[in-house]
Amino acid sequence: MRDELFARIESRTEELVELTADLIRIPTINPPGDVYVDCARFIGERLGARGFEVQYVRGEGSPGDSDRYPRMNVIARRQGSRPGPCVHFNGHTDVVEVGRGWTVAPFAGVVRDGKVYGRGACDMKGGIAAAIIAVEALVETRPDFPGALEISGTVDEETGGYGGVAYMARQGLFSRPRVDHVIIPEPLNVDRVCLGHRGVWWGQIETFGRIAHGSMPFLGDSAIRHMSAVLERFEHELYPHLDGKRTEMPVAPEGARRSTMNINSVHGGLSEGFDGLPSAVVADSCRVVVDRRYLIEESYDEVRGEIVDLLERLKRDRPNFQYNLKEMWSVPPTMTDRDAPVVRAVAGEIEAVLGRAADYVISPGTYDQKHIARLGHLHDCIAYGPGILDLAHQPDEYVAIDDLVASAKVMAASAWALMTGEVA
């Protein structure tokens, strides 16, 4: 059966490449959430024409959702000829902004030198295309398959996934008994099974001062100077403390096998975005946004507590220091067990297709597995797909055609093994 399935996928290589290019040509930039409806309809109409039951789900009320930018998701289901488990392939349709430095048109879907170029080629329209071809080839090869196959195209993964997988998980669309196994074709490299991701905690710290004339700063109190004291303690206390933490999670790359914190942005004093010279005032407010990534050995209370403790000590030590701490969002780390059926199925097919043992990794950043685990309470979930992780969000992003084909084979054979119970 495997030989027949793989031959069918190979015969559709040109179609796989064109499908990837077609998806790239739909510029679903997030934010703000451009042409989400167009991309959902493109996927839904293709699968609907092939016998899938198609449903469109708008993430109403989610962050960013509006009539101008509706958070439109699509989910397609093909029921088998007899009872069995459901295997679901989930891919996010949104892409990040283009940025500078491109040498090819970012939304042209350029095919050159065995690669498909464009924003989202790697992250993750190539993965969506490979999953679609994998499922279609499986249905054609084994129309009497047991169980069910699902494919979803969901939005907003690049900004947290709240209008996409999180919204749909709250509707029960990523939970048993509807779904049993989930594969997310994120670009973690074609020979890797990604078991999960580190945790994330985003917070905004605001310091306060008193406005005064900039020629007489002694009559005011600079919120920026107060924030500089926060940043100094970060530099000399918190960062060294985080550098000393290590994890047993197989996080890739190696530098992410420790706790990290990125200062995402700093805003203080006068607002920007105007022409002319600024007025002479002492800043009475300064805000910093921090992006903290943490390990499975750490707890939420520990992560937040380290920030609170630092700020409270500053409040005791520094005259007139006042602050406000606002949590923006957070999710815990997640890691699927290596003995889970979906892990064993995909790892076995990687070895069959590529001729080498699969590598097991944890993603340094989060992806939509977080919502499937915490909201759908479904833990038989991994990320596996074509593409090189380091190319994500870069100029001249691409996905190799050989990787598209190989990953489609792995996904199709894995789905068959999971539906039939033939997992080694």
Automatic annotation (TrEMBL):
SUPFAM superfamilies: Bacterial exopeptidase dimerisation domain (SSF55031), Zn-dependent exopeptidases (SSF53187). Pfam families: M20_dimer, Peptidase_M20. InterPro entries: ArgE/DapE, Bact_exopeptidase_dim_dom, Peptidase_M20, Peptidase_M20_dimer, Peptidase_M20A. It comes from the Bacteria. Keywords: Cobalt, Hydrolase, Metal-binding, Zinc. GO terms for molecular function: hydrolase activity; metal ion binding. Its cofactor is Co(2+); Zn(2+). Coiled coil: none annotated. Residues 196-316 form the Peptidase M20 dimerisation domain. NCBIfam families: DapE-ArgE, PRK13013.1. Belongs to the peptidase M20A family. This is Acetylornithine deacetylase/succinyl-diaminopimelate desuccinylase family protein.
